[in-house]
Amino acid sequence: MxxxxxxxLTVILVAASVVAAQKNAQASEFSSxxxxxxxxxxxxxxxxxxxxxxxxxxxxxxxxxxxxxxNSRQTEINGVKAWLSFPVxxxxxxxxxxxxxxxxxxxxxxxxxxxxxxxxxxxxxLDPGHGGKDKGFETSGYQEKTHTLLLARRLQSLLESAGLKxxxxxxxxxxxxxxxxxxxxxxxxxxxxxxxxxxxxxxxxGDAKGVECYCLTPAGAKSTxxxxxxxxxxxAVPGNSNDSRNxxxxxxxxxxxVTSLDVEDRGVRRARFLVLREAAMPxxxxxxxxxxxxxxxxxxxxxxxxxDLAQAIADGIxxxxxxxxxx
Length: 327
Ligand SMILES: [Zn+2]
Fold this sequence. Notes:
Copper Amine Oxidase, Chain A, domain 1, 6-stranded antiparallel β-sheet, 6-stranded mixed β-sheet, 17 strands, binds zinc ion
């Protein structure tokens, strides 16, 4: 066994210190400060285990398994996919992660924020995407707006059975401006905002399938599916005041969906959708499957998938409620 191979196979508990403010040439390319993961992991009671391929590695402890790949933004947190804002980078035999990803993804999941004792999660704003003249994605006689409303109604009844209150941003086939959806949730003082959509594969995404849960991109980062109007210099917007709870809610819903449904996990993603930017409360946008994929569409327009998906989303919301209300 070569020394190099041995090094990769060995559990690395190198006493490397956290280099929180360090930049190197590669890191500055992404305009973010990087933290050496081995050191960070050790400080936070993780073991660092490298795969023999030298690219994949895990930080593990009794409760968590964080999987990373060098030069990739994809990560898995206890088996649930999530997208980092910046790629993990290699530095010698160690790897580094953007400080922003520690602060805005890892930390909020490992040590979730608590609501103060008076602030219970009691009112959920459900936002069925599209409506009226805005049909959303349309194919083979199916319109997204019809199915987001059906999903919202099912989810409403599950949440109400669990003792929560629900406000819908639309309860019939009407057009509602995005601003008005957010304003309604704010006026009614909803505790969380959950927007419901179905996906379609656009340019270059071919026959994509699976579920995604979006929350707001942190200030200073690019969104997961980068668009020309979206860049890392973007300043904080109102929704960024809930960054920690946004990502916690998104993760718990994504986790509930991918563990209870037989679907592809496309991960917790970041976007600057208007409803996420302007929401005054923790907010997510769920893409509950691809209407553009014929076999996935067949399932998601059916009663069974709708019930199962609604149940998973409700479970994720209830997990969130339990976590932020714990004393
Ligand atoms: Zn949509």
